[in-house]
Amino acid sequence: MARSGTRRRRLLAAVVALASLVALAGDAVAHSGGLRNATQDPISVPTWLFLTTGGGVVGASFLLASFVTDRQFVADVHAWGRAIASPGRIAALATRTFGVLALAATLAVGFVGPEDGPRNFAILLIWVVWWGGYVASTYLLGNSWPVLNPFRTLAAALPSLSLSYPERLGSWPAVAGLLALVWVEVVSPLADDPTLLATVISAYGVVTVAGAVAFGVDRWFESVDPVAKVFDYYGAVAPVGRSDGGLRLRLPGSELREARLVDGRDEVAFVVALLFVTTYDGFVGTGLWAGFVRGAVAAGLPPVVVYLGAYLGGFALFYGAFQATARLARRTAPTFLTGDAVARRFAPSLLAIAAGYHLAHNLGSVLVLAPAFVAVALAPLSPPTNPPVLVGLPGWFGGLELAFVLVGHVVAVWIAHAAAYDLFPGRMQAVRSQYGVTLVMVAYTMVSLWIVKEPFVSPPFIG
Amino acid sequence: MTANPDTTDRTATDDSSLAAAVDPDRDVDVPGGVETHTCEYCGRPFPAADLLVLHRGLAHPDELDDAEIEQFRETYRSESDDISRFRIAAVGALVLLYFGFLFTYILVA
């Protein structure tokens, strides 16, 4: 569930509206919570210059990375690391138990708790704690989802049917699953309606546990379950990872150079989808999109067709553009490697970008809503009428969020550089192979910064 | 910044992933009518003789005789001249970017 600003901002807006009834502090909060607000006020830099600067930073990163032509240095950076102690079985058992209990509590409060979204424990646990905070831990620390995942725990406790998974499907079911989950999230009030949220989680849980029992736990969570796959990929960005049965501390992002990470068109598509859904979710909250949808609907198109068309068409555009730039390396490098082979090695760099956006989009609202979660968690069935929120994130916070976006891109530029050095024997050949993917990253930076800078407009016709 | 890459760059021949990363059957597509230089150890084709020499030295150092190793070193050095030229262009581009943005900000913001 690559989530999203839109739903979260609405949740934030709802909580803020509640708080402002009594505290009259709504104005301050509204201007402190979101990335959009924080990026608009301080400076009078025109939009085109703001966007060009972002693109320029990424381009300059590429030029700077091109100075590193020492293969040994590149290899050393990515080989650095040390084994660290793994948590014991008791910790794993405790984590699994906690995961199952948290799932049970979410479903229970989702179905029988207060219907008011921002005061419901299930809504805050899923969107603030899990999607905002926990997901950030998978790329900032390490991926603990295989242990915490309650559906995996439940499926592992059941006997497996050990059906043979149709190998030709690869990870395409996960691509479809990710697009489907985020689609449901964008077009339905999942962050406002606890009953709906609990229903969707139950449906997802039934499908997931049944699938894992049918095809085996490892196979299911590796190839089909989109949530586990998102966390697997985010975990590759993190400083702690698994290797040789133990845990290993390494430089953040250094695993992204590994060839085994993305192994096929299906996995390239998954990584691109992860990046795309974040963009789409932001894009439907812009004034440009609202105007476009209203125009298209006035011309007679049903809203769902416009939203779905932009969703699938946008994904095809992202995927096609990425494949095309990878093919461009055949001429710029030059090389006989297929576009697919190059795309597989460059795709993991996009994960650093996705992690940067996730942090930028979510950190502010997690901080603002954390007190609300604590207050609601203390009394899930009779929460306070106006859960407290953190008022007044400092003004520099918006700059911090932009920095996360840029750091993600700069890491991505380095990963593409290191992967190219792994892939091509010529040092200049490796640099030239990155022209296409660098162009994509510059373009993507500018598009994303534009979305971030645009004031939020509630997407018409949905939710 | 433009230190001579010939004296600073190491080759990382212990980086074994170089040999393992490419499967010639799946990952390679040679357009028709183009001259190819194919590695006799792993079957990966290259569009230029230089690239094959570099590939052999990096991916199969233990298979080469002294003459081939000398050829690799020679090719590696000659590539360093290309890199030096690219670095000068890159420094130029960075300077242009920096002052371009500096003056734009002075004028606009």
What does this structure look like?
- The complex is a heterodimer of chains A (463) and B (109).
- Chain A has 463 residues and is mostly helical.
- Chain A has one domain (2-453).
- Chain A is 71% helix and 3% strand.
- Chain A has 21 helices and three strands.
- Chain A has a three-stranded antiparallel beta sheet with strand order 1-3-2, with no helix packed on it.
- Mean pLDDT of chain A is 88; it is low at 18-42.
- In chain B, α4 packs across α5.
- The relative contact order of chain B is 0.13.
- Chain B has helices at residues 5-8, 17-20, 24-27, 49-59, 66-108; strands at residues 37-38, 45-46.
- Chain B has a two-stranded antiparallel ribbon.
- Chain B is elongated, with a radius of gyration of 19 Å.
- Chain B has one domain (5-108).
- Chain B contains five helices and two strands; from the N terminus they run αααββαα.
- With 109 residues, chain B is mainly alpha-helical.
- The A-B interface holds A 43-46, 49, 52-53, 56, 59-60, 63-64, 66-67, 69-75, 259, 334-338, 340-341, 345, 422-429, 431 and B 1, 5, 8-12, 14-15, 17-18, 20-22, 26-31, 36, 45-48, 50-52, 54-55, 57-59, 79, 82-83, 86-87, 90, 93-94, 97, 101, 104-105, 108-109.
Structure summarized in a few sentences:
The complex is a heterodimer of chains A (463) and B (109). Chain A is an all-alpha fold and 463 residues long.
Largest sheet of chain B: 2 strands, antiparallel
Low-confidence parts of chain B lasting 5 or more residues at pLDDT below 50? 13-17
* H-E order of chain B: HHHEEHH
Q: What distance lies between the first and last C-alpha atoms of chain A, to the nearest angstrom?
A: 17 Å
Main sheet specs of chain A: 3 strands, antiparallel
The helix fraction of chain B, in percent, is 55-70%
In angstroms, what separates the terminal alpha carbons of chain B?
Answer: 31 Å
Strand content of chain B: under 5%
The average pLDDT score of chain B comes to 84
Residues in helix, % of chain A: over 70%
